[in-house]
Amino acid sequence: MAQIIASVFAETRDQVARIAAKAAMAGADWLELRLDRWPKGTDLAPALGTVRLPVLVACRTPEDGGHYRGTLSERRELLSHALMAGASGIDLEGWETWAPPVGRTRLRLFIRSFHSFTGVPKELLAIRDRLHALPGGVAKIAVTAHDLADAAPVLDLLSQTDQRQHPTVAFAMGRTAWPVRVLACALGSPYVYASVEEGEDTAPGQVPVALLAGIYRVRELGAGTALFGLLGNPALSSLGPWLHNRMFRRLGIDAVYLPFETSRPEAVVAMLPRRQLRGLSVTAPWKRNAVSLCHRLTEEAAATGVVNTVVAEAHGLLVGHNTDVAGVRVALERAGVPSGGGRPAVVLGTGGAARGGAYALAQMGFRVTMLGRSLEPAREFAKKHGIPLGSLTARTVVDLTPAVVVNATPVGSIDHDPEERLLPGWTPTTSTVVLDMVYQPFLTRLLLDAKEAGAQVVPGVEMFVGQAQAQVKLFTGATVEDGTLRTLLAGTAVVSH
Asked: Annotated catalytic residue: which of 22, 40, 287, 384?
């Protein structure tokens, strides 16, 4: 069971007291005080006396990713002083030949660490063994992953480590690599480092204590934990982890769901622990790539050539599904949109999400046209299903007089300019239904303009909930009411309208 170490730069007594209280309330098990910035000659004992958590101390030089500018002798004196003042743990780099005095101290955690800020060394096993050959009890290896896929050797190292014989903390630093910290807990890592609050990290990619202890429940993860995640680029802002992790807890399922943002999706899937992998959500731009990962496709996935959900079945067989189809259909039906009856409908976009939308509309009986700035991605799909393609312009939409317009592009999302207009100059009629697949923000620029024109708008959260219902069923076997999903999303931007 992993323990959470909240890491902070110690600067003043009052600041340490304040941050220690926050860390404890958030659920930390340890407080790491980085002494890089501690004022020279200032007694640590009064500051440590205010901390109710066990304290781990470290002091890093710029070469090791820190800020300490004193001499080596002064650094050792500072760390010794911290132990005598009541610290319970110390972290020393692998190059450090000095060992701390243990007499008359409370020392119970001794970490030897290695950091790489340029990449992932190939010899991680050898580095682990060198650290364990030094005085100390726990080896810590922190490397830098420029893409999540770069962290594969870290997971390999952990899978080959007997934590009872060689306690080892290993993780990857980097904006997109933080899920490795959670995966490490499922693979037996005894500790995980966290920030006390968002933006107060002491190393790249630290996650706040409250998230690790709450949504990701790292203390409870282990070899029996089922692994799920979202494969995309971007993926970090998705509500998937918030929704699915809360659903797992509600259903009493030992599982965790993580955002896997990467430019190399196949490599990320290959590096995940196969015996624990149970399913993946897939978002742009990897919905087409996911087809090649699967051993079998369902009807919707085969018909669209797009996979947004992967389920691991017996013997590791991966089955591809497309729940976007159900999401669009359910969102429109709940909005009271009747069957198409041959009426025209338009899908804006030609990517993976657009195919799901077009297929759903066709199933409902609409006469669908797909519009895009680039038509090539949808050409084979459109030919197969007899769907016309056209240029993504306001004039084209006006000429088609659609009863339903579905936006399947990322325009309007939080990762784009919120004021960008996909179809400047187009105004829907009052009889038009406009569905935006973008669900953050709740009302996009497209929907705000459509609402002002008197059209019926269907926010993307309606599709998100519809497809999430289907995903939860595939992942867990449970049928969940949409009201339950909305309750689990309470407090997020998509339901705070």
From this structure: 287
